[in-house]
Specification:
By secondary structure, the chain is α/β, with parallel strands linked by helices. Helix content is 40%, strand content 17%. Helix 10 packs across helix 11. The chain binds NADP nicotinamide-adenine-dinucleotide phosphate. Residues 72-216 form the NAD(P)-binding domain.
């Protein structure tokens, strides 16, 4: 017994350090060295208890949802964009001159309302903080110069402010050409095209322009709901397959099919949040096509 022990001590002291320094722990708590000889194994074969380390599963933190800023979120189209974005799980803020609209609909309580005027650029800076994409639904009618300001200058201000903040995507709800009507509403269309040009130059990769014709849906005027869909939906049904007619001179563009506010909103939110949505102009047929996709 004594000679066996001294033999063990001798053989352990004569072993090279590298052979003894690299045992691997087995699951059963025993040690194993890949280069151990059968004689060496007597040295390390003693069972000893080692608690097996359990891998700790730490769930990754949920990604914080993107924040979408809807300019004109209280308007007809803007309210549909807010609702669509909320349904898709985004954080939604809006900026318009009168702030939170006086409606008692649950979606409105979930929007962060900012008061500001796009014609006074300083009033919109703060609302762009932490925003990943902007959808502008600001536009309207009036005298030619008012229309140019609202559809053009106001949106150009917003586009520049968003670009300066480093926001990656910007969607502008513009309007389709209406032939003769363009001439009658010169300020409106010139404003739209000026804003479009600014968007394409500042947001080469993340700028999307939607060009709907007439938009139908339920429009709120004061305390009344006007069901524009009663006229718009049948017109859409008739005109959506008559694209060649829109090429007729003068009257053709007036045959552009109407599209629902819900469809415009769906495409606007997707264009603002899907990084592979192609930049550029989406006409009414494109809006209808994209809105049918899941
Ligand atoms: N409705 C259609 O059939 C149709 C068709 C084609 C294209 N579009 C285009 O779609 C866009 C939305 O149209 P809409 O019918 O929804 O218009 P809307 O109902 O009149 O809404 C306009 C929104 O813009 C806000 N706004 C107006 N001036 C502003 C300013 N200077 N600064 C900040 N916010 C301002 C308004 O809120 P405050 O008044 O509180 O500021 C409102 O929230 C427009 O660009 C329009 O040209 C509409």
């Amino acid at each position: 017994m004594r000679s066996a022990l001294s033999h063990l001590i001798r053989s352990s002291s004569s072993a090279s350090p590298s052979r003894l320094s690299s045992p691997v722990l087995l699951k059963n708590g025993k040690a194993f060295s890949s280069d151990a000889t059968p004689r060496d194994s007597r040295l390390v074969d003693e069972p000893f208890k080692v608690e097996e380390a359990e891998p700790v599963k730490v769930p990754p933190p949920p990604p914080s949802p993107d924040k979408l800023l809807v300019l004109g979120g209280s308007g007809f189209v803007g309210s549909h964009v807010c609702k669509e974005a909320l349904e898709r799980g985004f954080v939604v803020s809006s900026l318009n001159r009168s702030g939170k609209p006086s409606i008692s609909e649950s979606w409105a309580d979930k929007v962060i309302w900012n008061q500001g005027n796009l014609l006074e650029p300083a009033s919109l800076e703060d609302s762009m903080d932490g925003v990943s994409a902007v959808v502008s639904c600001v536009g309207g009618f009036g005298s030619n110069s008012q229309m140019f300001k609202l559809n053009g200058t106001a949106n150009i201000n917003a586009i520049r402010a968003a670009a300066e903040k480093g926001i990656k995507r910007f969607v502008y709800v513009s309007a389709a050409d209406f032939g003769l009507v363009n001439y009658l509403l010169q300020g409106y269309y010139e404003g739209k095209r000026a804003a479009e040009a600014e968007l394409l130059s500042k947001f080469t990769y993340g700028g999307v322009i939607l060009r709907p014709g007439f938009i139908h849906g339920t429009r709120r005027v004061g305390s009344m709901n006007i069901p524009l869909g009663l006229v718009g939906s049948p017109m859409q049904m008739v005109l959506q397959n008559a694209k060649p007619l829109t090429r007729l001179p003068l009257v053709g563009p007036m045959l552009t099919p109407p599209v629902s506010a819900a469809s415009v909103a769906k495409v606007a939110v997707r264009a603002a949040t899907d990084p592979v949505f192609p930049p550029g102009i989406v006409d009414v047929y494109g809006i209808m096509r994209y809105s049918e996709q899941k």
